[in-house]
Amino acid sequence: MHEDTDGESGAGTTGALPGKRLRADARRSTDALLTAAAEVFATSGVDAPVRQITARAGVGAGTLYRHFPQRSDLIAAVFRNEVDACADAAEPLAAQHEPAEALAAWLQRFAVFIGTKRGLGAALHSGDRAYDSLPDYFQQRFVPVLGALLDTAARAGEIRADIGPDDLLRATGNLAMPAHDDGEGHTRRMVALLVDGLRYGAPPRRD
Fold it and tell me: Quick check: pTM over 0.85?
């Protein structure tokens, strides 16, 4: 184990509810590490030096190793955290937009998620057992979310009703692969075309 050098779990924990204070501090440290690691992985790859992550998070190396003893533990946690953030974006989008527009906005959000996770591909397919549950986690979080968006838009008569979430996740993921021109701009245009295809053949809207 590595020695904790940031001192965050020492001072300031006395008082009426020290246990709750410690848990809150640990939660903040974990959140800061996951955010910092996601940013570092996006720019420097999953093999970036630990010091880059801890410096960005504002914690000591001991804190990182206490929460994530192995690098694969951190990578898996970052992936789950990013999956959750993407999946959770569907609900506010559905509340703010008409059904087909909410679907389009979420697919764009999903495409960005896929595009920023290219660097994790090699790690996730490395054979490390720490990643074994991630494909199922991906499906469990995204299939119901996209299925609900599709069902709502189809019931509203805004898109065709013969497309399932699995096919659409795969198609959007393929569109988010690197392009030779302007990268993200290309992906956004292709996803917009995909959504236009979903509108084609939609049944007449019933009042």
Answer: no
